[in-house]
Design goal:
By secondary structure, the chain is α+β, with helices and mostly antiparallel strands. It has 12 helices and 6 strands. The strands form 2 sheets. The chain has a 4-stranded antiparallel beta sheet with strand order 3-2-5-4, with helices on both faces. Strands 1-6 form a two-stranded antiparallel sheet.
């Protein structure tokens, strides 16, 4: 029989651990979970490069005179003075280098699988497909306004006066409110009845939303259905009891074009761009087969 084989020589990591010495940085890194994630990412990247080999990037990068002039104006606007020749050259070199990096990144497919890049490219396509809608005429703006009265009409409003009975000052609010109404029905002057109200007793050109905000929805509903010239109440709010008399009613009406011109223009142009986008997207969909595998309920 031959001589017994010598025991295997322990690795440096094993020797260090056996002697109580601190493991090497490489050994410690091998125990970190992030290292494995990085290795897995590198492996996936390598597989993707095999499936989608990068194309060699060639081509000229030409910064035209118009582009250079635009960079010069931008530098002047931000710096408050004309840029020096060196400053302009440095800015153009930075752009050229960034363009090189962009092209190389695109060739490597670094844009694939990036939700931020994907969203940005979709947004650019949407803007491009929307096109440039023609400037609308006043007649077109008026037709658009009239077709959407709920969006652009001046809301109906009322003028009214009130007599207020403060719930915080009258423990028996209901009885005191009834007493106030009796005095009003007896033609007593409203200014001599009730308590002061923080916003006063007279309200002019109040829309339903304004009344709802101040007094509540039930109050506004009763007020806008009240006949003009007669006391109505009691109406209640978070403040107490109210008797109201509608003095005038102004019906809802279309707002003047001049008051809404910019808003109407922006809304109409966006509607036209949106319609153009939808038509273009429908045309583009015909180039693709779309299959949606929905899970069974």
């Amino acid at each position: 029989m031959g001589e017994p084989e010598p025991p295997a020589t322990p690795t440096v990591i094993e020797e260090g651990a056996a002697r109580g010495r601190r493991p090497s940085a490489f050994a410690r890194a091998g125990r970190e979970p992030l290292v494995y994630f990085a290795l897995a990412g590198a492996l996936l990247f390598g597989v993707d490069r095999v499936r989608h080999p990068p194309r060699e990037v060639r081509g000229d990068i030409v910064l035209t005179r118009d582009f250079v002039d635009g960079v010069r104006r931008d530098l002047a606007s931000r710096g408050g003075r004309a840029p020096t020749r060196a400053e302009l050259r440095a800015a153009l070199e930075r752009f050229a280098e960034e363009e090189v990096l962009y092209r190389e990144a695109a060739a490597l497919g670094l844009d694939r699988g990036d939700p931020i890049v994907r969203r940005r490219m979709i947004q650019k396509m949407e803007v491009m497909l929307g096109g440039d809608a023609p400037e609308p005429s006043d007649a077109e703006l008026m037709r658009w306004r009239d077709a959407h009265p709920d969006r652009y009409a001046t809301p109906a409003s009322v003028d009214f006066i009130q007599v207020f009975v403060d719930g915080a000052r009258h423990p028996d609010t209901a009885a005191d409110c009834a007493s106030a109404r009796a005095r009003l029905d007896a033609a007593e002057a409203p200014t001599s009845v009730g308590d002061p109200f923080v916003d006063g007793a007279t309200f002019t050109a109040q829309s339903r939303s304004q009344v709802e905000l101040r007094f509540g929805g039930a109050f506004a509903e009763a007020l806008f259905n009240a006949p003009a010239g007669r006391w109505v109440g009691p109406l209640t709010s978070r403040y107490g009891c109210h008797h109201v008399r509608v003095e005038a009613v102004t019906a809802s009406r279309p707002a003047p074009i001049d008051a809404l011109r910019e808003r109407l223009r922006a809304d109409l142009l966006e509607d036209q761009r949106s319609a153009a986008r939808r038509r273009a997207i429908q045309r583009l969909r015909t180039r693709h087969t779309i299959r949606i595998d929905e899970a069974s309920p």
